[in-house]
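Rotation project, supervised by the postdoc (A.L.). Task for the rotation student: set up a whole-complex structure prediction and record inputs and outputs verbatim in this book. Inputs entered:
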Amino acid sequence: MKKFFSVADVADLHGVVQEALSLKSSPHAFEHLGKNKTLGLVFLNPSLRTRLSTQKAAMNLGMNVMVMNMDKDGWALETQDGVVMDGTTVEHIREAAAVMGEYCDILGLRSFPGLKDREADYTEDLFNKFISYCGVPVVSLESATRHPLQSLTDLITITEHKAVEKPKVVLAWAPHVKALPQAVPNSFSEWMCKAQEQGLVEFTIAHPMGYELCEDFTKGAKITNDLEEGLSGADFVYVKNWSSYVDYGQVYPVAQSWMMDNRKLQMTNNAKVMHCLPVRRDLELSSEILDGPNSLVIKEAGNRVWAAQVVLKRMLENL
Amino acid sequence: MKKFFSVADVADLHGVVQEALSLKSSPHAFEHLGKNKTLGLVFLNPSLRTRLSTQKAAMNLGMNVMVMNMDKDGWALETQDGVVMDGTTVEHIREAAAVMGEYCDILGLRSFPGLKDREADYTEDLFNKFISYCGVPVVSLESATRHPLQSLTDLITITEHKAVEKPKVVLAWAPHVKALPQAVPNSFSEWMCKAQEQGLVEFTIAHPMGYELCEDFTKGAKITNDLEEGLSGADFVYVKNWSSYVDYGQVYPVAQSWMMDNRKLQMTNNAKVMHCLPVRRDLELSSEILDGPNSLVIKEAGNRVWAAQVVLKRMLENL
Amino acid sequence: MKKFFSVADVADLHGVVQEALSLKSSPHAFEHLGKNKTLGLVFLNPSLRTRLSTQKAAMNLGMNVMVMNMDKDGWALETQDGVVMDGTTVEHIREAAAVMGEYCDILGLRSFPGLKDREADYTEDLFNKFISYCGVPVVSLESATRHPLQSLTDLITITEHKAVEKPKVVLAWAPHVKALPQAVPNSFSEWMCKAQEQGLVEFTIAHPMGYELCEDFTKGAKITNDLEEGLSGADFVYVKNWSSYVDYGQVYPVAQSWMMDNRKLQMTNNAKVMHCLPVRRDLELSSEILDGPNSLVIKEAGNRVWAAQVVLKRMLENL
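Outputs recorded:
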């Protein structure tokens, strides 16, 4: 594996999940694979779970890890070509990426969208340039439009906890106070659509009018604006807020209650509840669910390690 | 050891000091104990000595270390239950702690008091919740009311440098420009009171009127408002500023000079002078003392490694 | 080696370059040399290449690395003696350096000049005090007046890529939007002057009037204010901006074009072009050069590892 950016980078969904679960049962089985190899984690935006779980995964494989926090103020990168750099950007991504590639065998990159210019965000310009210029394999630690390590984690978690062969999985929009990116729901959707194609799940998306995701990510999904209809018979409910794709980056007032709570849980098939975290309690998801037996959120976060580890393992094997 | 938060977590003061000194003479004797174990150090407030010494201690034991700097602006934690999280806190401590527990075998946490609401600070709500929710052993890297790694260091240092069986140890208040927490003096006091009970030291606290510490930490200590009386015959003088506990977080003008200097040193039994650092030169403690033969401050800082290492060793043995 | 601060700390320029190239061909040959040794990297100013390359070098030698980012706001150090510390500085360099020396076997320090007070910057007060007080070997990660790891890297890179026995090397001033320190050009100049003395290169400096470097660094160099004259017959062009030393820290308007581009490259002997990075594209150096076959900037950045590694290796051998 040379790149882990979208579901298209994984040929065998079932195989990668099984390999991740095998690493979970023997975390140190490949601790010599990463000896004298260096993983560089580049964060243009802050991270908690992603940084820790990827660092842990790399250490389990015996790798060295170097973390670079390059917030936009401290080390602003120029991404456009042909610009006279007489402004506030201090380094061009051509040099920054190539230099980091000199020091690292594998690089991870996190870069959030601006949520102002949809075209700019959805072309994934920065990410693609980073991949082109750094010259080493790149793991996405969340880009403008996708968060594939999270989605692989989610598929691992669903596989571990499913009680039926082909569970009904529902991505349910939930309220928030901020305008959040579509990266997590886009990515979850593209992974679940592919899992559905392979007969692994049945996938539904429920969201209020105006919160339609980009169709590139939702092909094959059943989509409804009726939360109750979506939840009916669900085995897994994946709760997540996102801002509008259509009216890009905007947030609409939503009349109906879309917070996931125990009353709504009753409409499901005693569903397990998932969330990528951080979660706003009693706004997105009720405390009673988070603290109750149906919540998988902590185990899901724990599985971030095995998603990262299987990706790094495959990259190391291919260096 | 499952928790290192106060002196109550150490059954055998003498034993733990001897074990620390033994690690000091053989730092790498237990380097296999921490193999494939991960220490997570969570800082809600900045740290220099504590982070470096604990990281060094963990590496001496062969552990991996991950550091998380979560300042209050960047990743504000909600600690109250039943709050609708529609404000500025981005994650509840229930999730944050539990997730970090998924990635780490032992966690360290630093969290300073607000110094506004004594009740809130002294209940150690955040710390206790972190311990409850993370599910792994927790080392305090300084909490609202205590700094036990510092106090253990101090007892190690006194043990190493004492010239008499039962030295007179004086905690002497000193001036500062800022309102500082009571964590270091509280903790030093509770460790010295216990050491006094066990016949290891004789303990006196000297401070101006209005700077009385919480009595929970000072039981058995001799307390005086007369610095000269306190210093008389002292073998060790532990210099430290703190703000008022009674009129919580306030700073009073102090008429008399409370800065420790050579003139005052003459009143002692040629005392060794200690300070947890950072120290304000010529405000808390004179340069002549800091640069002279009676200062232990650098050796004391060096001993932070062995305090952390003995605590981590005991936790690792008990995992 | 106890200190790596200027070219004077290296007795044998040729030997150190050859040793670095030998490490480049066998990066892990000395991986046991640093076992249980700790490198502390202290940054009073931000760093990308220097931190990553030095960390990588240390890991190649089997060392543990601890990074301390102490920006001026967060942990302001007092450097003057005899000051009552009742202001904004929180710790004196005497204590800060000594404490870090307790935890580390080797320390690296980065500290930029203020560019306000030439006398203060050029005495290298902070750096010299840090060296005096920390008690362990110190590597400069760039000081107020020098950047020796960069200059050693540059000599390694020139040695690798030279086509003639004694290439003509030109340090060519270039425009920028900010007032930059003289550390890189000072250091490059003192290394090239020494290399010239040893018959390794022929060295010329080209800069506009008013940008004369301090003569301590340029003894033996040919100096011209005519860029075309300087570039004539050059085998290597080292492009770099700096602010005025004479009118300290100031920036003058420069009438003539001093940006390095393909037209100017034609005046050279098909010169290789170098830059320490980060580079402002199309302001200091044209994109056509940076993206073309004459640029060495990425390989040069890559060589930072071997410069750091040979220095650390010599220090470890001498502990």
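Student's summary: The mean pLDDT of chain A is 96.
Supervisor addendum: Chain A touches chain C at residues 36, 38, 40, 64, 66, 68, 70, 74-75, 78, 81-87, 90-92, 94-96, 98-100, 102-104 (CB under 8 Å).
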